[in-house]
Amino acid sequence: MHGRPPIDGVWLQSATCASHPHPEWWHSHDPREIDAAVAHCRNHCLVAEDCLAFALATGVKGSVWGGTTQHERTQMLHRNDRLLARGRRFRRASRRSTKGSGNVTTG
Fold first, then answer.
1. At what angle do helices 31-44 and 48-58 cross, to 10 degrees?
2. Does residue 17 fall inside a structural domain?
3. For residue 6, is pLDDT > 60?
4. Is the pLDDT of residue 106 over 60?
5. Which residue segment(s) compose the domain that 71 sits in?
6. Residue 74 covered by a domain
7. Is 68 helix (H, G, I), strand (E, B) or coil?
8. N or C: which end of the chain has fewer CB within 10 A?
9. 8 A C-beta contact, residue 47 and residue 18
10. Structure confidence at residue 7 as a pLDDT band (50, 70, 90)
11. CA-to-CA distance for 33 and 26, rounded, in angstroms?
12. Residue 4 placed within a domain
């Protein structure tokens, strides 16, 4: 498993890809099959959010997970990193501007 947590079988059993007649779509390199897998996840899978959360948390590479491609998940993670960095800068600036003013900040 290379240090990744195991896939929780409870949600995986409810994934539409687990019983789909074309499971190879989720691991394909063919853009048409990838598009079909993404659309199927987004439109029919009741556990797509859990699946996406697993993929993002574990850094799983390739394949379609939670109705997203590897490229889409990479973009999500980079965007999240930028937003977290912006939030840290904002908090530091807020603390500096209120330091010594007697204002109490929370959070």
1. 120
2. yes
3. no
4. no
5. 9-98
6. yes
7. strand
8. C
9. no
10. low
11. 8
12. no
Is the per-residue pLDDT at 5 higher than 70?
no
DSSP string for residues in 80-94: HHHHHHHHHHHHHHH
User: What are 72-95's pLDDT values in tens digits?
Assistant: 999 999 988 888 788 788 788 888
The dihedral region occupied by 43, where left means phi > 0, alpha psi between -120 and 50, and beta the remainder, is: alpha
Overall residue count recorded for the chain in this entry: 107
Which neighbouring-strand residues pair with 68? 65
Using alpha carbons, select from 50, 78, 94 the residue that is nearest to residue 103: 94
Q: Which of 72, 78, 77, 71 is nearest to 57 (CA)?
A: 77
**pLDDT for the residue 90:** 79
Report the domain count for the chain: 1
DSSP-assigned letter for residue 65: B
Q: What is the mean pLDDT of residues 98-103?
A: 62
60: tokens are 């799983």
pTM of the model: 0.70
Evaluate whether residue 70 is within a structural domain.
yes
